[in-house]
Amino acid sequence: MAHAVVAGAGIGGLTAALALARNGWQVTVLEQAASIEPVGAGLAVAPNALRALDMIGLGDEVRKLSAIQGEAGLRRPSGRWLSRTTAEDAAARYGDSIVLLTRSALVGILAARLPRGALRLGTRAESADPRTGLVTLATPAGGTETIQADLVVAADGIRSRTRAALFPGHPEPGYAGVTSWRALVPFPGPVGASETWGAGLVFGVMPLAGGQVYCYATAPVPAGLRAESEKDELIRLFGRWHDPIPALLAAAEPGAVLRHDIYSLDTPLPALHSGRIALLGDAAHPMTPNLGQGACQAIEDAVVLARHVSPGGGPAPDLTAGLAAYSRERLARTTPIVRRSRLVGRVSGWRAPLAVALRDGALRAAGMLGPAVAVRQFDDVFRWPA
């Protein structure tokens, strides 16, 4: 049985392991952390990613644990709507709505389906030979060992050691100019989904199942800055914005507020593979979160990779051709999404009063044409596979 080693037990790595296992591969998943409790808070799973999860038999399980995004749209800090859509609008156009759940819930679903003994925690992939597939590991005891793999899937994140080794002259992901905050807030009252754009500032609200709300925010600051209290910093920036933002910030636990600077790979890689190694997710195409497609594209990567290296329901006799096809297909798909997400981030970050007024006016004019206009802006993202 052909053996695939997956470096990284995030959403993309776990999905890849499951997709490969369903196609007859023996899989080993390496995770350097002592547990796979994910860093993060909430997650929007768009119709394209739900379709990918359907391909490995998990779409309905994700839907059952999720909240359906009801009415949603863009607002001003005053609360005035710029544009609105509903779950029914999205479902009618794409066959599915966007579903909302915690990142830990999705990781739990994926990890529970791994073959017995496939996951190795506290074990880091130090290096992988693209020619032979030999993977060198750092073990929990402080030693090293090697594993022979027919395929190596590098899902080792935005600071991927594997990407740097395969493409040493390629630019690293660059700071996008904004920092982000995320928090899960217990909030039993009814809350609608929305994203509010101010002068350079963004605040998003996503209601989840179980009386929780996922809040996220961005602000333009130099990289590396941190506040003594990130909750207090959010209150300083957003505490006078429309309801329910002040109440959500008041209800947030200070220790539950996460802050991370945002990075993007603006120059696409020449390929998403080399030899026996395939790059996936943030290791392949780090993007800003403005389209909500980071995890969604990693899920797509995983099922497409498994299809190309297992065309007959088992390992491909010509792995080189399969990986080349994966690179071509995924670069064509992800490159415009990375660029569009970056563009939306720049527009949402405009601070000059005239630019903000023109932006908001254009969004409101488009919103007045009806929800169908707003929804179909996502046709090229949500309608996958074409």
UniProtKB/TrEMBL annotation:
Gene3D superfamilies: FAD/NAD(P)-binding domain (3.50.50.60). The keyword Cell membrane does not apply. Keywords: Monooxygenase, Oxidoreductase. InterPro entries: FAD-bd, FAD-dep_Monooxygenase_BioMet, FAD/NAD-bd_sf. Transmembrane segments: none annotated. Residues 4-341 form the FAD-binding domain. SUPFAM superfamilies: FAD/NAD(P)-binding domain. It comes from the Bacteria. PANTHER family: MONOOXYGENASE, PUTATIVE (AFU_ORTHOLOGUE AFUA_6G14510)-RELATED. This is FAD-binding protein.
